[in-house]
Amino acid sequence: DLQICQHRAPTCCTKKMEESYQAAVRRERTQSIQALNFELKYMIVGHITAFQEAFESLLRFAENRTSSLFETAYRPMAKEAAEPVKELFTDISLYILGAETTVESAVLRFFDGLFPLVYSRLINPGITDLSEDYTECLRLTRQDINPFGHYSKNMVTELSKSLWASRMLSQALSLGIEVINTTEHAALSKECSRALVRMQYCPHCQGLTLIRPCAGYCLNVMRGCLASVSELDSQWRDFISTLEYLTNEMAASHELEIALSGIWNSVNEAILHAQLNGPQLSATVDKVCGQPKQQEGNLSSANIVPVKEVTETQTFVMAHTSLNTKRREFINYMKRSRTFYASIAERLCDGDLVMRDSSTCWNGEDVV
């Protein structure tokens, strides 16, 4: 009653043993593919972590730099500006990680929150009553009167260009892991598991426990079993090319590091622009939002303090170098894995599974 290991010679197998063999080959194939995938997956996961750590390091550096701008040049609003600054960099981090948000919404939300502070602490430092309604009116007015000139739009443009490739790379790496995980659990067809049993276990039914499959026979069986997986070859090659393009984009003219480290300067220029246009802004705001309560002897906005560059170059250079090195290492490794899915059958037949350097092997029917 044997279904797979039918042979003219006497046999020591039963139908139940054939079923056990089928379960064994399914398990072994999954483990073999997992072992092949392990190094590739380990490298991708390692680089996802490394990239994220480098991104976070750059973001922290840029956030600290922006915070120190307020502490050194705009002390009257430094404490209250801490929250909008923190929100801005949280939004940027979430954007890179693939959240449903945009750079434009993050930057404009930041300037919406900043304008009430600039208006009440720098342009009109005598304002004592900054009610919720008045603050909200200032936020909404910001969108119409554009107190920060072209600086807010420039910041959106620069960050969008540099962050886009980082976001795409982050999503592409996650997709790569998903693809690899899916191939590990690709179901074996009934025909395939029978072919694997015939190749690996049918010799046992005749007491030939040490004989191993012929190399060509193994390749034929494996290629048939893994046809659906090896079909990924052209898409995997395209995927590697896309990763290469994205890493090159990250290192191109609109570098992430330069854009992030320049946020403080864009913010400073925007605030200076608003202060220099203080009288016109006040006139417009008074018409739209009304006049708030003020202390006598208003200090006006005479004390504009242009800020000099904050020097924390060592941290920045380290994060910059780290990210560049990781990019190069990663793309060089991934290029070597270009043929991963095309050569998966060859790799599974390599090693101990088939007979090497011997004149005797199993061809599926007999010892040859």
From TrEMBL:
Protein localization: Cell membrane
Membrane topology: Lipid-anchor; GPI-anchor
GO cellular component: cell surface; extracellular region; plasma membrane; side of membrane
Keywords: Cell membrane, Glycoprotein, GPI-anchor, Heparan sulfate, Lipoprotein, Membrane, Proteoglycan, Signal
An individual GO BP term: positive regulation of canonical Wnt signaling pathway
Summary of the function given for this chain in its UniProt record: Cell surface proteoglycan.
Family of this protein: Belongs to the glypican family.
Name of this protein: GPC5 protein
Protein species of origin: Malurus elegans
